[in-house]
Amino acid sequence: MAGLVIGCLAVQLSLASLLLCSSASTAQHTLGTGSSLSVEDRSRPFLVSPDGTFSCGFIQAGDDGDNAFSFSVWFTAARDGAVVWTANPDAPVNGRGSTISFRHDGELALADTNGTTVWASRTGGGGRGLTVSLRDTGNLVIEDPSTGRAVWQSFDRPTDTLLPSQRFTKDTKLVAGYFSLYYDNDNVLRMLYDGPEIASIYWPLPGVSIFDFGRTNYNSSRIAILDDAGVFRSSDRLQAQASDMGVGVKRRLTIEQDGNLRIYSLNASTGGWAVTWAALSQPCQAHGLCGKNGLCVYLPSLRCSCPPGYEMIDRRDWRKGCQPMFSVGNCSQPAAPERFKSVVVPQTDFYGYDLMFNGSSITFELCRNQCLSDCQCVAFSYRFDGVGRCFTKGRLFNGYTSANFPGNIYLKVPIDFDESSPLVSARSAAGLTCNPNVSIVTVPAAVYGMAPRNSGKWTYLFVFAGVLGVLDLLFIATGWWFLSSKQSIPSSLEAGYRRVMTSQFRRFTYRELKDATANFKEELGRGGSGVVYRGVLDGGKVVAVKRLAVDVTMQGDEEFWAEMTVLGRINHMNLVRIWGFCSERKHKLLVYEYVENQSLDRHLFDTAEGGGGGGGISTTTLAWKDRYKIALGTARGLAYLHHECLEWVIHCDMKPENILLTRDFDAKIADFGLAKLSKRDGGAGMELTHMRGTSGYMAPEWALNVPINAKVDVYSFGIVLLEIVVGSRVADQRTEAGERLQLPQIAQALRHVLDSGDVRSLVDARLQGQFNPRQAMEMVRISLACMEDRNSRPTMDDIAKALTAFDDEDEHPAYRS
Q: How confident is the model at residue 356, as a pLDDT?
C-alpha cells in the first residue's frame, strides 16, 4: 500500500512538471507595447523567463480569503510561489477589473478596478518600440531593442528579496514591515527596526565595534551581491555563505516579517525551501517584535509574552506591546522609594533606554535603591557576570528572555503589588491571538508540546481568564443594550458606559473645554472645518481645541462617536495627535496636541505674499534642510493616512496652513480625517456633500462631479512641494503681463527646468544659493508628476520613498550667488 501511494505521488509530480514545462513553453518571454493582462486571467502569467525559472503576473497578496492581488515576480517551480519582487506591496488591487498594461508610451502600469493607476514604472514616456521581458535572472526589464539599453528594471527597485547577480547599493533597500536592510551613513550594511514609536539598529549587534565582526566603515563603494555559488559579499567586508555553497542551486536572500535576513535554497525535486544562512542566530535579537514592554522568547518557535503585572494592549497585534496594570507615579511627585519594590524576571533583559550604567562593580542593593529612588526608572537590569553591572531603565523596549543571558530584569512596582495574584498571572501570560500580518505565533506554551509540570494550575488560570473574558463581553453587551434602548437611564450611568466604549482617548465635557480655553478666548487659527483655540487642561497640559463647523457636525452622536474611534486609532509622528473629543448635542469639539512652532505658511511666505493666518510670521528664511525635512515628513504622514491606516482616510484640504511645525521643524499634519466626519458614500471614491479644500490647492476633479479618491491629496501635496521650493504661493505666480499663471503654464515651466537641469532660477532667492540641487530637482519632478491627470499621479507612498532616497545626502550646495 505504501509503495502504491509513493508511486501515485511520483506520477502526480511528473504530471505537474510536464504541465509546468508545457505552460512555460507557450508563455511569452518578451512583449511589445499595447500588451495587457486582466486579473481575472491570473491563472496564466504575464511573462515567463526563457528557462522557465521565473514567472510574473497577478498573485494573491493576502490570506487565502482576501480579494487582494499584486503584480509580482516569483519562482515558478516553488511550492509557495516565493515572490521575489512586487510592484505594489503596499497597494494591492481588486480581484475583479484590475489590469497590468504595457502602454504605448512604454510605461508598465497597474490599474485597480476603478481605473486608478496604483503603480507605474515611470519610464519617462516617449517609449514607442520598447519591449518588456523577464530574464532568466528574475529581472523584469523594459528596454529599447534598437540600442539594447534598459530604461527600467525591477533589479533597481527590490522589495524584500535579493537574487543572485542583483546588485544591492546605497540607493536600494530591502523592506519587510518595520524591518529594513540598507547601507547606513557610516557605509556599513545594517538592519533597522523602524516602528511607530522607536527606531533602532539591531544588526550588526549594537554596542559592539563593527571591526569586531570583521567589517569596516572604510567603504566608499557601498555595494553587495549574492553570487551564483551562494556567497553574499558586501564592500564593508561582510561575507556570508550558504551551507550548501556551490553552483546549480536556485537561491534568494530575503528579509522577513520577523526581522531576520536569510538565504534560502530551493529543493528542485520537492519545490520546498531550506534556510542555508541566517543573519541572526537568535531570532529574538531583532528589535520590536513584541512591542513596548513585551518579552520575546524562543521555545523553539518565536513567542511573545507580557512581564508580571503587564497586559497586552491589543490582543490582535503583539507589535503594540503590553501596558502596566499599575501606576508608579511621575516626576511631579517627590521621590518616595519606600512606596515601591522590585519584581524579578529571570534571565531577561530589555535592550537600550538606559538611564544609568555602572561599568564598575556595584552591589545589587545599591542598584535597586538607585532605581526605586529615581522617578524616571521603571526597571533595572543587574548582571551576575563577575562584575556586578547595573543598568537602570527609563523605558522597556526590545525585551527578550534567554537561558544564555547572565542576569535578570527587576520591574519597579508599587509596594502593595501582588505578583502571585491569579489575575496578574493570567493577564501577563502569553497572548492567545496572533496578528495575521506578522509571522509571530503567540499561543500558550502547551501548544508547542512544552506544557509545564503543574499543568492543572495553568489550566485553572486560563479557565479563570476565560471566565473573566466572558464577563467582560457580557458587561459590554449590556452596556450597548442600555445605550441603544429607548428607555431613560441616569446620565451618570450613560456616561460610564460611554467611557468604556471610548477608552482609546478621553471624552471631555463641553464645560471642561470651555474652562480650559477661558471661554474660547485665544484663537490659534480657523478654516473651513472650524476654529482652533489654545487651551490648558487641569494637569497643566497645553492643547489645541477645535470647535467643528456646523457642516461637519450635522450627524448624530452615535455616528460621531463611531468616527472618533477611527481617528483615535491614527497615530504617526507626522500627524497631530488627537487626545480626545467632546460631543454634547450641537457641541462637537476635538482636542489635539499643541504644536508650538505654528504652521508652515507663517515660516515660508512673507507678508507681501499673503502668507496667511495672522501675525507672528517668521522673519527668518526657512533653511533648505528644514524645508526638505518638512516635505519628507508631510509625505510620510499622508502616506500613512492613505496606505497604512485601518480605514481609508483622505485629508481633502492639504495646504501649508495645515502643516504644523515643532521646535525642530518636524512636520505634523493637522485637520486630517475631518472629511471623514462629513456625510459621504462608499464605493470607488468619496461622495462629499460639497467641495472641500482651498482655492489654489484643489485638484481639477473637484469640479468634475466625480467620486473623490486619495489622488486629490497627491495633487495638493504637489502644489505645497513646489511652494516649499520657490518660497511663495503658486496661485500668486503671474506672467510678465500681470496675468495669473494657469496650471498648464506652470507644468510647462517645470518641464523646462527638468529638461534644462537648471533649477537655480526656480529656488527661493532668499536662500542665496544655499540649497541641495539634487533634492530640489527631485522635488520639482515629483511636483510635476502630482499635477498630472489623477490616474497618472504617483501614490503618496511612492512620493515618500522617492524623497527618502535623497534624504541622507550631505548638505554641500553646488550653487552660490
A: 79
pLDDT of residue 63: 60
Q: Which residues pair with 231 in a beta bridge?
A: 241
Contact (CB, 8 A) for 306 and 322: yes
Reported as a single tens digit per residue, the pLDDT across 308-355 is 889 999 887 888 899 998 876 667 666 677 888 999 998 899 988 888
Q: Which amino acid is at 243?
A: S
Element (H, E) at 312: strand 310-312
Is residue 13 included in any domain, yes or no?
no
Q: How many angstroms separate the CA atoms of 224 and 245, rounded? A: 18
User: Which distant-in-sequence residues (6+ apart) come within 8 Å of 537 by Cβ?
Assistant: 512, 516, 543
What are the cell numbers at 803? 524623497
Integer CA distances (angstroms), 120 to 123, 152, 684, 715, in order: 8, 11, 20, 17
By CB atoms closer than 10 A (0-12, 13-18, 19+), residue 481 is exposed
User: Is residue 397 within 8 Å of residue 353, measured between CB atoms?
Assistant: yes
User: Is there a single domain that holds both residue 173 and residue 148?
Assistant: no
d(CA 431, CA 459): 15
The radius of gyration computed from the CA coordinates of the chain, to the nearest angstrom, equals 29
The catalytic site residues sit at 653
Q: How many domains, the chain?
A: 5
Q: Are strands 140-144 and 131-134 parallel, antiparallel or unpaired?
A: antiparallel
389 plus 254 within the same structural domain = no
How far apart are alpha carbons 88 and 98 in whole angstroms? 13
**Omega of the bond leading into 452 within 30 degrees of 0 (cis):** no
Range(s) of the domain holding residue 722: 598-817
Is residue 619 within 8 Å of residue 631, measured between CB atoms?
A: no
- Whether residue 253 is found in the same domain as residue 321: no
Contacts of 349 (CB under 8 A, 6+ apart): 381, 399, 400, 405, 407, 409
Same domain? For 805 and 676 the reply is yes
Between 711-726 and 773-786, two packed helices, what is the crossing angle to 10 degrees? Answer: 140
Is 250 assigned to a binding site? no
